[in-house]
């Protein structure tokens, strides 16, 4: 559903701002009014979290916006962060430098702050290693299954060079089975019974569209040689860790997988670690 909100918002690219008032209020009202005629959304609240002045183009500001929507179908709450650009007269979600081809969103992407690093999410390396690498991933994302284990295996060989932090970020609309797999992995991690849980998570063979929890756990336990039960997935501590990872992803505006941060900055190439001598 987060993707749905993003797709709906793309229809607003390069529209004139007609409302009067302060720049912040004008942007808020414009975004909020744009969703009024959408039958899928019962209500939506827009808040501006950050406003950043751009060096180029002159007169433009970047707005990091929080969307808090209630869906009409089931009253479900959906939250999402988005980045918008405005010069007070026009508004757009994307600005690209024609000379470099780079999106200006990369210049205003939130940093992974020092206080965000959680010891529980440190899966390999020493936390005082020279470089910190953060990975947000969905274990059933096809690209993740090919890329993430290899990247982790490369970095785990150099524990004093790389501290590897892993944050679960399943995509329920695309891979519903990943949600229960993620919770099962957290439950097993909390039991402290075995190593390489994250790496082995990518070996679990299950249909990404599977919703039957028993089948998902059967596949998970077979791969892990474990005995995680449905009740384990519902424990308060597992729920808390799962939500904490989701909150962290929201804080740094992760919207797809895999997303990587290298020494606090988003790594769009996902190859910064390879450049380390």
Description:
- With 277 residues, the protein is of the alpha+beta class.
- The chain has two domains: 2-107; 114-275, Glutaredoxin, CATH 3.40.30.
- It contains eight helices and ten strands.
- A five-stranded antiparallel β-sheet has the order 1-5-4-3-2. The protein has a five-stranded mixed β-sheet with strand order 6-8-7-9-10.
- The model is unreliable at 1-20 (pLDDT under 50).
Task: Summarize this entry quickly.
The chain has helices at residues 2-9, 23-34, 142-156, 177-191, 197-201, 213-224, 230-233, 236-251, and strands at residues 15-16, 41-53, 61-71, 77-86, 90-92, 122-124, 131-137, 162-168, 259-262, 265-266. The protein is an alpha+beta fold.
Q: What is the percent of helical residues?
A: 25-40%
Number of helices: 8
The major pleated sheet works out as: 5 strands, antiparallel
Low-confidence stretches: 1-20
Strand content: 15-25%
Q: What is the residue-averaged pLDDT?
A: 88
CATH topology assignment of the largest domain: Glutaredoxin
Counted up, domains total 2
Task: Decide which structural class fits the backbone.
Answer: alpha+beta
**Strand order, sheet with most strands:** 1-5-4-3-2
Question: Which architecture of the largest domain per CATH?
Answer: 3-Layer(aba) Sandwich
Distance between the amino and carboxyl termini: 41 Å
Name a few traits of the molecule:
277 residues; alpha+beta; Glutaredoxin; 5-stranded antiparallel beta sheet; 5-stranded mixed beta sheet; 10 strands; 22% strand; globular; disordered N terminus
């Amino acid at each position: 559903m987060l993707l749905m909100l993003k797709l709906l918002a793309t229809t607003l690219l390069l529209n004139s701002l007609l409302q009067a008032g302060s720049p912040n209020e004008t942007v808020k009202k414009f975004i909020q009014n744009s969703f009024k005629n959408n039958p899928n959304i019962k209500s939506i609240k827009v808040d501006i979290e950050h406003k950043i002045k751009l060096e180029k183009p002159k007169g433009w500001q970047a707005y990091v916006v929080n969307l808090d929507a209630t869906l009409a179908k089931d009253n479900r709450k959906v939250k999402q962060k988005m980045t918008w650009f405005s010069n007070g007269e026009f508004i757009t979600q994307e600005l690209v430098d024609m000379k470099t081809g780079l999106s200006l969103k990369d210049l205003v992407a939130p940093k992974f702050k020092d206080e965000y690093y959680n010891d529980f999410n440190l899966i390999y390396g020493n936390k005082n290693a020279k470089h910190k690498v953060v990975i947000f991933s969905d274990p059933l994302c096809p690209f993740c299954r090919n890329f993430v284990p290899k990247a982790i295996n490369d970095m785990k060989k150099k524990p004093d060079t790389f501290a590897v932090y892993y944050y679960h970020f399943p995509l329920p609309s695309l891979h519903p089975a990943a949600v229960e797999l993620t919770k099962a992995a957290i439950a097993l991690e909390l039991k402290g019974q075995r190593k390489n849980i994250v790496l082995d998570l990518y070996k679990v063979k299950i249909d990404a569209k599977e919703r039957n929890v028993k089948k998902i756990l059967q596949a998970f336990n077979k791969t892990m040689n474990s005995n995680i039960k449905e009740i384990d997935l519902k424990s308060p501590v597992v729920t808390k860790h799962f939500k904490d990872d989701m909150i962290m992803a929201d804080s740094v505006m992760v919207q797809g997988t895999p997303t990587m941060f290298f020494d606090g900055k988003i790594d769009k190439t996902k190859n910064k670690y390879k450049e380390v001598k």
